[in-house]
Design brief:
Blueprint: H1 2-10, E1 16-18, H2 30-44, E2 49-53, H3 58-70, E3 75-78, H4 88-102, E4 106-108, H5 112-115, H6 121-127, E5 133-135, H7 141-148, H8 152-170, H9 193-196
Helix pairs in contact: 1-2, 3-4, 7-8
Biased composition (Low complexity): 170-190
GO molecular function: 4-hydroxy-tetrahydrodipicolinate synthase activity
Pfam families: DHDPS (PF00701)
């Protein structure tokens, strides 16, 4: 495990997140997650190491955050409580409570397809009022680079476009018509005309040059 973390650090990653929700997180004992955190910290050198907080209750999440902070974690990737599908105000309280308990920067993870809880743009705007809520994971590296460059309006525009695209792809009734339509698995269906028009074939991406 230490070798794997070391390879990532040597490859130039910005940091390491351990005990992800699609790994063994909820199958591990608390002391095991802390052991993994310590192994990652040893391998990462000066790079930040974040602990994933994916718990079945806010109380458990707060306790996990406190323990990871005490063990030397740099911050947390926080998920809504699972498997309970919380209402928006409950989700906000969950994240805010964990942030207060850990006292370190947090990244709010959002995967409504997998967990059934959607952290919407208005919810992110509310969470952004908390100085400890500093990020959300995004596969679109351009968004991160634009934020780092201070080009926030451009970053928001790309995120809002990308978010709607992801939502449309995740819903059986709204798959976009394309040349790949015949290879799609049922129950994907053709998008309605108004929805399809919202996503042009080629995105007018923003250049960083």
């Amino acid at each position: 495990m230490e070798r794997c973390f070391g390879l990532q650090a040597d490859a130039g990653v910005y940091g390491i997140i351990v005990c992800g929700s699609l790994g063994e997180n909820m199958a591990l004992e608390p002391e095991e997650t802390l052991e993994i955190l310590n192994i990652a910290r040893s391998a990462a050198g000066s790079k930040p190491v974040l602990m994933t907080v994916c718990e079945s209750s806010t109380k458990r999440g707060a306790a996990a955050a406190k323990a990871a902070a005490k063990a030397g974690g740099s911050g947390f990737m926080v998920l809504p409580g699972v498997p309970y599908k919380s209402a928006p105000e409950e989700t906000l309280t969950h994240v805010q409570t964990i942030a207060a308990a850990g006292g370190l920067p947090i990244m709010v993870y959002n995967n409504p397809i997998a967990y059934g809880v959607d952290v919407t743009i208005p919810m992110f705007e509310e969470l952004a009022k908390n100085d400890l809520v500093v990020a959300f994971p995004k596969e679109t590296v351009t968004v991160y680079k634009l934020v780092q460059a201070g080009r926030l309006d451009e970053a928001r525009a790309i995120y809002r476009w990308f978010r709607q695209l992801v939502d449309s792809m995740s819903r059986p009734s709204s798959s976009r018509t394309s040349s790949l339509r015949k290879s799609m698995r049922s129950s994907r269906t053709t998008a309605s005309a108004p929805l399809a028009c919202r996503f042009p074939a080629n995105s007018a991406g923003t250049s960083l040059t």
